[in-house]
User: Fold 3-oxoacyl-[acyl-carrier-protein] synthase 2 from Nostoc minutum NIES-26.
Amino acid sequence: MTDYKRKRVVVTGVGAITPIGNTPAEYWEGLLSGCNGIDYITFFDASSHDCRIAGEVKNFDPHQYMDRKEAKRMDRFAQFGVAGAKQALQDAKLVINELNAEQIGVMIGSGVGGIKVLEDQQTIYLNRGPDRCSPFMIPMMIANMAAGLTAIHTGAKGPNSCAVTACAAGSNAIGDAFRLIQGGYAQAMICGGCEAAITPLSVAGFAAARALSTRNDDPAHACRPFDRDRDGFVMGEGAGILILEELQHAISRGARIYAEMVGYGMTCDAHHITSPVPGGEGAARAIRLALKDAELTPEQVSYINAHGTSTPANDSTETAAMKKALGDHAYKIAVSSTKSMTGHLLGGSGGIEAVATVLAIANDRIPPTINLENPDPECDLDYVANSSRAQKIEVALSNSFGFGGHNVTLAFKKYP
Assistant:
């Protein structure tokens, strides 16, 4: 808590490019219907890989959001970020002009950045020599470029940065944007996460770490958070973007408000480069800090969008963390993992899951955890298995955890 009067922050726009829909409306419809976005990899020949499945974004046309020359000079992750940002601005009906540009900023996280460009340029370097590498390689590859290009495309001249905290990056970006508005450093922020890392080297690396599912004979059921038969996560790609605004700024322009953002908790396990600390102590602290920041009690929480990766270590540890942080009330909270449908977007996951969380609050509907057929005995909470649920939601949390021990929880509540 700080000693200054913090400004209130609301969500007024959303954007979504996902494996189950390329607009917020398509994404939300896909979530509620339990749509599966996982299938065989088509971007490259994965026949020699241990994991041959992923959640690819289908039928994405970057030229709906930028001209061909601009698109050619962007990695796919940045195309997703810019597209999601433009969707969110349009949804919020927020026009950036010379009068407000310096008060509107961008925070878009990415865990990997332009890895496809890096892989492609490495091939060119090895086969054709250093003089044939693209002069655009570096600006296409670096992880901050989704945030930079979004500012260029929208004219937002306020605070601009990029969180690179692995699978917590999108949530860190949203939380950091929230803090900037609370402190009066911006009136509005374009924030979230994006990723496009379904590439040969990236898939091989995660598979070598034994993190990915190898249920190649059944891609539709490969991502199964909290199920005893889960065997690893499935990679996804896309972007999820929120428009956060200072409350009075939103009211003054007659903006529609999806939800109010009220809390941000961030901790580190300081334990292991990839594995969560046993018992979920670090994640539990993030949940508690978000509630403390929001001045909420566990009993006020209605829904949690879980990190829920479908890995043996995460799901049981996250369940333990929720029980540790929320006590007996954890058993009364609806919890779901939307990764069961989209796969794991790495640094983009916190963005699309924040979008899912605020839409759940706005519509009083909870997306399901699909493929939950045989619950793990250690995962004994209410995971909204296989079918969406109509339920009043006053307060919702979104959890994100990343390699390196990063833990983030975002807290939202119904407005007014």
Notes: The longest helix spans residues 76-92.
